[in-house]
Each structure stands twice: as C-alpha cells, then as structure tokens.
Amino acid sequence: MLWATLPLSFFLLFAAAPCFSEDIQDQVHIVYLGEHNKKTRTIQAIEENHLSLLLSVKKSEDAARESLLYSYKNSINGFAAILSDEEAAKISEIEGVISAFPSKERVMHTTRSWEFITMEEGLSDADRESMPSRANYGRDVIVGMLDSGIWPESKSFDDKGMGPIPKKWKGVCEEGYAFNASSCNKKLIGARYYIKGYEAYYGPLNTTYSYRSPRDSDGHGTHTASTVGGRAVPGVSAIGGFAHGTASGGAPLARLAIYKVCWPIPGPNPNLENTCFDADMLAAFDDAIKDGVDVISMSIGASGTPRKYSSDSMAIGALHAAKEDIVVACSGGNSGPELGTVVNLAPWTITVGASSIDRAFPSSVALGTGKKIEGQTVTPYRLKKGKMYPLVYAGNVEVPNLPRNISGQCLPNSLAPEKVAGKVVVCFRGAGFRVGKGLEVKRAGGAAIVLGNALANGNEIAVDAHVLPGVGVSYGDAIAIMSYINSTPEPTIAIGPAATDFNVRAAPVMAAFSSRGPNRVEPDILKPDITAPGLNILAAWSGSSAPTKVDGDPRRVKYNLISGTSMSCPHVGATAALLKSLYPNWSSAAIRSAMITTATRINMEGDPITTAAGEAAGPMDYGAGHIRSSLASDPGLVYDANYTDYLLFACSSIKVQMDPTFPCPANPPPPSDLNYPSVSVTGLRAAAVKVIRTVTNVGQRKARYKVEVEEPSGVKVGITPKVLRFRKVGEKKKFVIKLTAVGKGSTAGGHVGGSYTWSDGIHAVTSPIVVTLT
Ligand SMILES: *[C@@H]1O[C@H](CO)[C@@H](O)[C@H](O)[C@H]1NC(C)=O
Ligand SMILES: *[C@@H]1O[C@H](CO)[C@@H](O)[C@H](O)[C@H]1NC(C)=O
Ligand SMILES: *[C@@H]1O[C@H](CO)[C@@H](O)[C@H](O)[C@H]1NC(C)=O
Ligand SMILES: *[C@@H]1O[C@H](CO)[C@@H](O)[C@H](O)[C@H]1NC(C)=O
Ligand SMILES: *[C@@H]1O[C@H](CO)[C@@H](O)[C@H](O)[C@H]1NC(C)=O
Fold this sequence. Notes:
- It is globular, with a radius of gyration of 26 Å.
- The chain is α/β, with parallel strands linked by helices.
- The strands form eight sheets. It has a seven-stranded parallel sheet with strand order 7-10-6-13-15-16-24, sandwiched between helices.
- Among the domains are: 362-498, Glucose Oxidase, domain 1; 678-773, Sandwich (Immunoglobulin-like), CATH 2.60.40.
- It is built from 19 helices and 35 strands.
- The structure holds 2-acetamido-2-deoxy-beta-D-glucopyranose (5 copies).
C-alpha cells in the first residue's frame, strides 16, 4: 500500500507552498518505445533519440539531459526521466511512443513471519530422487535475481568444485561499498545495482543502514537467491536449532546473477521493508537480458490497482525476456485470501502462489485446569520446565487511556510493567509486527508471550523467532484461553519447548496470505499459475539483518525461516533452471507449460488441497495446483507460444501495439485463444464460447492421447477431437474446447472450476478451466 499513500502525503505536505508545487509534481516517468531497430541504431543514436523526445517537452538540451535517469539501450527501447504529468502526457502522444507512465514503488513479497526450512523438504520424495541429478543440478544455467542484493560470504554461495563460467555470460561484477570483484565467484557470476529511481524519489541513500553496492542489507535477496541456487550446506538450522538439516537451493549448481533493485524505505526502522522502483527494475531487466541469463526470478510486485501490460514495468521487462526465451518466475503477492488480489499478471510469466509444507514446530501449552493446547513456535527461549506461570490478557494490563481499537495488540509501550512483570501475556495478531509484540512483552518484563491468531488468520500459525519464550496459537485456541482467563481469578499456564515435526498432514495447504485470482488486467488469463512452498522456508540470510528484522533485535543468523510468495517464487525459478538444463532448446512457454500441466490439486493424504480455512481450494487459489518438478521434467505435451503470439494477445487484450515493427491486425484472436496451458473464460452466457489450443509433442515419438474432462458445475465442456495421434517429436495438434452454460450452476459473477486432461497412459497433461458465469 505504501506507494498508494506516500506520493499523496508527499504532495499534501508541500501543497501549501505553491512555489514548490511544480517541482513536486515532477516525478520519474518511464517512456516505453518497444523494440530497438537494430539495423540502423547505434548506442549513440538510441540515446540521441531518447534525448530528442525529451527535448520536445523540456526547455533546453541541458534540461533534457539532466532529467534523464536511464536510457534503456540493450533489449528494451525506452528511458526513465523526471517529467511532470503534463510532459509525460505530451510525450505519450508522439508517434512511436507506446506508453509513458510514472515509476512507482513495488514491494517484496515476504510476510513478516520468520522461520526456517529446507528447499528439498518442500518437494515430494519423487521430486527429490532423480530430477535435479538428471538435470545436472542446473549446471551452467544462469538465473538472474531481481531483489535486494546478496550476502556473498554465505556458504550457500561457495563455488568449490564448480566449472568455469559459461562462455555466453556477458555480465559484470559491479564494485561498490563492501563489495568488490572478489565478492563474485563461479557461483555468483555477476552482480549489479540500480538506485537512480530510488534516489530520485527518496533522496540520497542513507549509507549508515544500507550498502551502495550489490550487498544485501535486508536478507530477502540472499534468501531468494539461495532458494534458487544455493549449494547444499549441511548442519544448518534456524536460531534455536529448529529445522536442522542440509540447506540447499533447488538448482545447486546453477549460476546466480544478482540485480539489486530494492532499497530500504527511510524511517525509524529502515530495513523492515524495502521498496523497488519501476525505473530501476526496468534497467535491471534490460541488463539481465543482454547479460545472458536463462531464467529471471523476481519476488516483487506492485500493490493497488494493477496496470495494463503496456504501462507495467514488470510486464514490459518480462516481454523482452520472453522474446529471448528467458523464463520469468514471479510471486503473486501476499494479499490473500480475498479474490482479485493477485499481481504480476502477464501471460508471458509464471505467477506463483504459496502453500505450506509438511513441517510444523509444535509446542504444548497447559492451562491451570489441566487442559492442553498445541501451539507452534521457533523461539530459542524456554520457560522453566513444568512450572506454571501467572497468565494475563494484554487488554487487562495496559497503560491507562490506551485507545480501545489497539487494546490487546501489545503495540510498543502499551503494556504496564507493574502489571506484567513475571507473567505470561496473551496478545492478539492484527495491528503491528508479530515479533514486535514479543519485544513489547519483554520490555514490560513479561515472562513469555502467547500470540493468538485473529479470526482472519484462522488456523494458520505464524511461527516466530521471538526475543523471549512464547508460542503462537490458532484463533479457536486463543478464544479458549481467553475464556479460561475470564473464568478464574488466578489463571496459570505452562509452555513446553517446541520441536521440529516432519510429515505433518495435511500438506500442502494454501497459505491464507497467498493472493488470489481472478486476473484484474485480463480475466481470460488465469493467475496465479501454480503454487509452491512459501510457508516457513529456511534459506541463507544477510549478516547485517536481524532474523526478525525488527529494530532492537541485535541477533544475527546465517539462515532464517521466512514466509511469503517471495519464497515460493524461487522454487519455481529453480525448477525452471533444472528444466532449462534438461532441455536447452525449449521455449520459455514450453517450460512454463511443463510446470503448469503437471501440477497437482491433491495433497499428500490423497485429498483435495484445501485453503487455510479448511475449504477445498480451486484455480483462483492455486492456478493448476502444487508444483511437481519431477513430473514437469517429462510433461508429454506442451502448450507452446512465442513472442508474436504475445504481441497478438496484447493487440486484443489491451488493444496496444507493443512492438513498433508489428502492427496489430484488424481482427486479432481473442485473449482466451492465446495458447496458454490453462483456460479462463469470463462472462459465459447462453451462447457457447469456443477456445482453441495447440499441443506440441515432447514425449515419445509415437503417441496417442485421449482427453478426459472434469466439467465445472453448470458448464458443458466439449473437446474436439477427443483423440490426438502423434508420429514424431515436435509435431503439433490443434483442438477446440466448446463451453456452454447449462442451467444455474452458480450465481452470476461467481466462478466455477474444472479441468481437462490429455493422457497417453504415461503422461497426464492437465489444464485447469475457470468459467465466470453472467
Ligand atoms: C575485496 O574484499 C575482500 C573481502 O571483503 C578483501 O579481503 C579485499 O581486500 C578487498 N579487495 C579490494 C581490492 O578492495
Ligand atoms: C541515517 O540513518 C541513521 C540511522 O537511522 C540516522 O541516525 C541518520 O540521521 C540518517 N542520516 C541521514 C542523513 O538521514
Ligand atoms: C485506531 O483508531 C485511530 C483513531 O480512530 C486510528 O487512527 C488508528 O489507525 C486505529 N488503529 C487501528 C490499529 O485500527
Ligand atoms: C538446439 O538448438 C541448437 C541451435 O538451434 C541446435 O544446434 C541443436 O541441435 C538443438 N538441439 C536439440 C537437442 O534439438
Ligand atoms: C510463432 O508461433 C506461431 C504459431 O502460434 C507461428 O505461426 C509463428 O511462425 C511463430 N513465430 C516465430 C517467430 O517463430
């Protein structure tokens, strides 16, 4: 939400001083021009063209030059410059300009829960066996990470035994503060940083809390990079010894290229949240494409109303990447479980939701009545064994005159030390940071925290590395503890130590925070595409950031447990790297299709995957379902698509010609006809809708596939032909899916989900179907 509110307050703050107002309205805009005309353009000619466009709205050449932040010259044709809205509007009218839009802030998709788990434990046994080894652990595949940088000294980035850097690599190791050429190696083969967009908005970086270099002061970038390509490091655990085991990235021999685009938001606790500006991200995309990355993993997204693809820096950068068949994996956001919250919506990317894995950190809680409750925690601190402690509800031990709406939340300075000393305090989730609530109980002299879920959190317990003993409990259990407190004059409690518990069923469960469909830019493309582990993921951490990231927590850790679609996205990025290693000639669409059509909607108990609230999950929650890397390495059939298909899609979906060399035809195919591995149709009425798809055989030379349909309720699905025969690898077959509304299957505006599957007896190639009825 920050970008929605900050520019507003910025503006209001200065509105009283009219002499400033003109300057204040100026902000960084991106002017997008599509493709470079490679035949006639030199680097100088490109920059001159950008400057001449600027000169058409600026008063002088000096003013034009001064306003230019970035001239994108590699793959992307466009620039970032300081322009007023009027100037941007004027430029957007000029022939050849596709769009001009403000460079906004984006956020990293981590939740503020901090725990620890290994990558492989997020995958099923079948996944672990052979797929990474068959794929040479992603050796020589280059993954570009757009994030907060890297902590190069982490053991996860050791290059011992790795071969020479692939010849196609054209990137650099950019030096900067506390980062020099020796910070890169054969694992971290490149690192750059982009800060002009950030500094144009926030002013010069405060170097007392961040590094003007690719070095990561936050932890997020180190975590996501090690999840993709960290080496196997044995004997790793979280603070307190939880989740002990070997930490390894999904593609441990892949090469990592770091593009630091996220920087701390100035304020009292600057590293709590980072911000990533469009202008900087687009510069990173432009370099990464030229540098020769094979995969881009990007755990960043905008909040607020999503922009259409032609004014969305991420969609633009990813389109240029897709042209070079670079796979772009991105997080879908942490704004669930409400519908329509998913971000990163372009069909030329793979958008990832987050789900749980089969691990928990149970801690037994005993009330004075003898009643036992199971909570979860990863705090390294313990209460005295078997001792009963006095128990209080925070709302009853607060300082006088605390506003009612924050009572019980344990916000900073809310508790009265004389009423808290030596006691266990029940606090609720809602406002403020979970770990901050523990800090407050500790400040007030409390013995431990019981952190109760709010109704919205349900049973999804956030395990935290609290700064004191403590435990998280479900909403139901929190209410039970509250009624116990209210039933007796001297309530007491004991909290047992936590353990790491494997094989927790049911798993996976969709995380409540994972953002949901439908796609608000183009509802006929289903987003998210897939889900992957994103709850309590253990990976490497920055040496300059506390595991909780809270100011006042002096602890430093090498590995940290955190949650978010930020953590699930690199699992998909890693799988893409393995697939790229197995099939260097596959298109990015084929790699995306392989992951989507082999995903599962069934959990490890054999039941349908549920939401955190316990209801059956569907395509709006997880797209095609949970990723299965091993099956993705042998998908049988793929839904291929290329750059031209995406341009045609943009012609019909957003009615924009995204490439100056590709005029939109008069009647481009409808968006739902993009050869996507899922089917989404909105506004199905009495008249049938036909959707066309083409599959490419990538399995056996000779194959015969039969289709089976699971119809969405109230929708008849006819597929013709019902059988596809292939005689060679690479052969393509077209089929038509006819959808007809029958009766009242669901309320108008509601969506219904189903699927269809092509099977040859070996492969099952499944695509979700989502229909919105009107
Ligand atoms: C580069 O960094 C390493 C480790 O931080 C340090 O030992 C070395 O002296 C630095 N070299 C230069 C040229 O700054
Ligand atoms: C930089 O951050 C530190 C720590 O938050 C603060 O004390 C200092 O005033 C800041 N410096 C500037 C120039 O804003
Ligand atoms: C509590 O109410 C105050 C005043 O109405 C408001 O400013 C604040 O945001 C509220 N806090 C929360 C956590 O809802
Ligand atoms: C992959 O593409 C390259 C270049 O187009 C070609 O030389 C090579 O034979 C292809 N490999 C396979 C396995 O198709
Ligand atoms: C892209 O795919 C379409 C089929 O969808 C095909 O007609 C076209 O030739 C392809 N274009 C390129 C550049 O490969």
